[in-house]
Design a protein that fits this description.
Layout: E1 3-9, E2 12-17, E3 20-22, E4 28-30, E5 34-39, E6 43-51, H1 53-65, H2 80-104, E7 111-119, E8 125-129, E9 135-137, E10 144-148, H3 154-160, H4 167-184, E11 192-198, E12 206-210, H5 215-234, H6 276-283
Antiparallel strand pairs: 1-2, 1-10, 2-11, 3-4, 5-6, 6-7, 7-8, 8-9, 11-12
Helix pairs in contact: 1-2, 3-4, 4-5
Length: 291
């Protein structure tokens, strides 16, 4: 599987991709999923892919060699929207050539992509491209896209990332998002490719491949886990069956009358009398009732 995240911020763009592919228990390998199309001083574009690896590689090759009827290529289109259209056309071209044959072997045409960058004086743009070749663009309301195993790393992005987030903070957040995914899903793995692009630079100036020995990523993984535990331990435990209003951490008050949905006992099975411990738990201690 895959996890990739791309962010469009006021200050530029952040891209992060893992490199694990999994075609079965005995076929786990490392394949780079982040590709750069760069003409320094004129344009920088970044493509990240998820889904069927053979389809992804075919699409990437088709993009690099695509020439439209009007002579347009990824290297000469005037803006990022036109470049995204070329990526979509490449997807449809590969689908036309391969989808039917793949279906004969029970293989779905499965690909999703994050594509972003800057051409000339136009501001940075970011697109999510689907298997049909259609796409959506990132705006103020959705400053990031994810592909692949997105659910594990999404909560931190939702809490932190806005268009005004700095590139360094966004890079840190992306790495925490990736760490959460690495811990929860063995189909995502190191090394990682990270590219941070400054608005207006029109060149790749910050790129790193991150493995197990990277000092910052090791520091981040350790400190994030420790601080999460510290925050968790600093939150008060819930109080059960308390008098309302005596404390903020009342989970269940005596006047809530909460009841579970109970399955009826079968005929002939008599209920046992509650134990003293369970009765004490239902009634609560005098302290919990404010007595």
């Amino acid at each position: 599987m895959t996890y990739c995240v791309g962010m469009r911020l006021d200050a530029g763009l952040v891209f992060l991709a893992d490199s694990r592919t999994n075609a079965g228990i005995d076929q786990v390998s490392t394949i780079r999923k982040l590709s750069v199309f760069e003409h320094p001083g004129e344009r920088v574009m970044v493509l990240m892919t998820a889904g069927n690896l053979s389809i992804s590689q075919s699409v990437r090759q088709t993009i690099s060699s695509y020439v439209g009827a009007d002579g347009s290529t990824i290297w000469n289109v005037p803006d990022m929207y036109a470049a995204a259209r070329i990526v979509g056309e490449a997807v449809r071209s590969v689908h036309k050539g391969d989808a039917a044959r793949l279906a004969e072997f029970g293989v779905d045409f499965n690909i999703s992509m994050i594509f972003g960058g800057q051409i000339g004086d136009e501001r940075c743009r970011l697109f999510y491209i689907y298997s049909a070749g259609n796409f959506i663009e990132s705006h103020e309301e959705n400053p990031y896209f994810q592909i692949g195993e997105a659910k594990y790393g999404k909560p931190i992005l939702d809490r932190v990332i806005t268009p005004r987030t700095s590139l360094d903070d966004a890079a840190k957040c992306a790495l925490i998002s990736m760490d959460s995914t690495l811990r929860s899903n063995v189909a995502v793995g190191l090394p990682l490719d990270m590219l941070v692009y400054d608005q207006g630079s029109l060149a790749v100036t910050r790129f790193v491949t991150i493995d197990e020995q990277n000092p910052y990523f090791r520091l981040l993984r350790t400190s994030w886990g420790q601080q999460l535990k510290t925050v968790f331990e600093g939150i008060d435990a819930p109080v059960w069956n308390a008098a309302a209003g005596i404390t903020e951490n009342v989970l269940s008050s005596v006047n809530m009358h909460s009841r579970p949905v109970r399955v009826p006992l079968p005929p002939g099975l008599a209920p046992l009398q509650p134990s003293p411990q369970s009765l004490a738990g239902q009634q609560g201690s005098p302290a919990l009732h404010g007595g």
